[in-house]
Amino acid sequence: MILDDIVRATRERLESLDTLPEIDPGAPPHRSLEAAIRACRERRAIIAEVKYASPSRGRIHDGCAPETIAREFAAAGAVGLSVLTEPAYFFGSIENLVRVRRAVTVPILRKDFIVDERQLAETRALGADAVLLIARVLGDRLPAFVDGAYALGLEALVEVHDRSEMERALATDARLIGINNRDLETMAADGSLRQDLLYRLNVVTFHLPPLRERTQDIPLLADHFLARFAGETGSVPKRLERDSLKLLCAYSFPGNIRELKNLMERVNIYCERSVVTVADLKPLLPAAARGGRRSLKEAMAEFEREYLEAAIARHGCNMTEAARQIGIERSLQNKNQRSLEDG
Description:
Blueprint: H1 2-14, H2 33-39, E1 47-50, E2 53-54, E3 58-59, H3 66-75, E4 80-84, H4 87-90, H5 94-103, E5 108-111, H6 117-125, E6 130-134, H7 135-138, H8 142-151, E7 155-160, H9 163-170, E8 176-179, E9 182-183, E10 188-189, H10 195-201, H11 218-233, E11 239-240, H12 242-249, H13 256-270, E12 275-276, H14 278-281, H15 287-290, H16 296-314, H17 319-326, H18 330-342
Parallel strand pairs: 1-4, 4-5, 5-6, 6-7, 7-8, 11-12
Antiparallel strand pairs: 2-3, 9-10
Helix pairs in contact: 3-5, 6-16, 8-16, 11-13, 16-17
């Protein structure tokens, strides 16, 4: 199956991924693909694709610079651009993504075969706003990769091909789900759309603004989560002081309510005092909320920490079982356990 060949080639490509690009201090701020789609009310929202080949059609756009293609799509009204970075079968490159990012102001979706968490950190460092996650490729790891993307300030677009994948996607916190009609064995598309999957999504349409657009809800939600986690751990609920609430309300929360929930869980675990001050809160926030900028190493460390915490929680704090499920060795397990305890 072509998909297996592409995934195999991707893993081989990752073997040479020794160093990742540094996060560009001059990179544009995060642009929400979800918000761009929702804002397009008078016409269909189109995400145009910048790619140079496909297994079914061969070479396309030969001789055209990615900036030229991107500018034409944006000028024609595309709400976002999808940039292929898979090199072996789609002739894409991360350089194309960087060049497109510099050329246009619409949100950028990185389209590749994501199989390793390092690719998420790489995607954010390259300046993309969203990342494609293929349900069939990631399998049971899909929820962790969705959470990891949001933790890094990326929006996750989950691609599904059948009903079982749709159900798994709906069980995650992904806010964008795409239906792909391509045959994964041949990579051919017949132009039809799985109407049954479309109707599985299209039940009732309503607009729920992201958390950054309703900051008045942040104090209420924060108090709710703190009370909930205190009840689960049998502790006294913590309270955020006024300046701590101001710091929270000033943050954009690209991961929406899930990110706030995870943050309040960390507050419940790591803050010893009953009243949470700014000094208590700042170390638990992403660098963007602290007024600084994360290095790629810090972003990777944050993703790894949240990924491990989620795995440990899923297995009832059984470190050995969590390590076995996510495929890390005992020595690395012990190292990561010390890292969590030190945090």
